[in-house]
Amino acid sequence: SVSLFNKYDILVSNVLTSIFFNLKLLLEKDSKYEYSLVKDN
């Protein structure tokens, strides 16, 4: 039961990490895109 919980805990933290990483990438992409728009105008 403890090992099952540990596996679940690791899974959850991996999922959270990947979600966070993807959000970070999306935000960086958005800001770069906005920056290039501002620069062009």
Question: Could you characterize what this model shows?
Answer:
The protein is mainly α and 41 residues long. The protein has one domain (1-41). The chain has one helix at residues 2-40. It starts with a helix and ends with a helix.
Alpha-carbon Rg, integer: 18 Å
Tally of extended strands? 0
Q: Report the total helices.
A: 1
Helix content: over 70%
Could you tell me the strand content as a percent range? under 5%
Number of domains: 1
What's the rounded overall pLDDT mean? Answer: 84
Overall 3D geometry?
Answer: rod-shaped
Question: Low-confidence runs (pLDDT<50, min 5 residues)?
Answer: none
> What's the end-to-end separation, in Å?
60 Å
Order of helices and strands: H
List the keywords.
mainly alpha; 41 residues; single chain; 0% strand; 95% helix
Topology overview:
Layout: H1 2-40
Summarize the structure.
With 41 residues, the chain is mostly helical. It has one helix and no strands.
